[in-house]
Fold these 2 entries.
Entry 1:
Amino acid sequence: MFKDDHYFAWFYDTTQLQTILGGIGIVIAVFGAILFPLWPPTLRTAVWYLSIVLLGLIGGILVIAIVRLIFFVVTMFAVPPGIWLFPNLFEDVGFFESFVPLWGWHKLPKSKRKKVGDETSAVKEETPGKREKEPRNLHTMVEDAPEE
């Protein structure tokens, strides 16, 4: 409904330049991969070497993961609680930060059970007339104010 005394807004969200350039880049990459047989032999050889290097990198990380697991299992019995090589290897950090520090002790989870003699584990008995004051639940209300 359009009236002179009403406000209205028009939101127009354009496509970002990054999205357009990314789409063009994907089309060019697919087109280039389709034309791989037409590439010069030196470029095909370079791409093959690059793929071998990347596969070696992935294989190296898998080998490191297996070696660190074996080392942890051995040290778990030899020097409890166990030692992790590259403790940040699978953490959400950058590539180089994954390899720092070189080693770290295994952190044991805190026990959730309480001791039998501990006062906090005893059941609190409520006095019939006394209850602890509970916080009030505050609500926010939005109302339309009439125009004058």
Entry 2:
Amino acid sequence: MSTTVTADIEVDVPVRVAYDQWTQYESFPHFLGGVESVRQLDDTTTHWVVKVGGVEREFDADISDQVPDDHVAWRSTAAATPHRGRVDFRPVDADTTRIDLTIEWEPEGFVEKAGAVLQVDDLQVKRDLKRFKHFVEERNAPSGAWRGEVHGGVEGNDPDLRP
């Protein structure tokens, strides 16, 4: 049984600030519930440690598509923790950005399956976006930035290098 969660929020920062902060994956534990740590292994691979329902899991995720100030898409690399997602950034005006987030995964075990049925996952994602809003608005500047593009899981800005 696959679960899909969608959520959106408007943040009171320019699109570049919202996007640049989102690409600082190692800051995710500051606003994503259940995320213990994220390490950036290279431009397209992150290593995650999460705790869901008291169960700790580790997995890698690859950035499959990324365009600055527009979107980031990812997918896990292990069959044991299948998930994927996409976050889109749309300017509402010069100082406001709409963020649309979609996450799909396969819940495992009773706790995760019950959470999906009871829509606990929806509430968690909405809370996480609110925490991101607070985090980025409070700073009003990203803690870093990565402006490269990724297409088909391959990093590069040169169109001749894209698959």
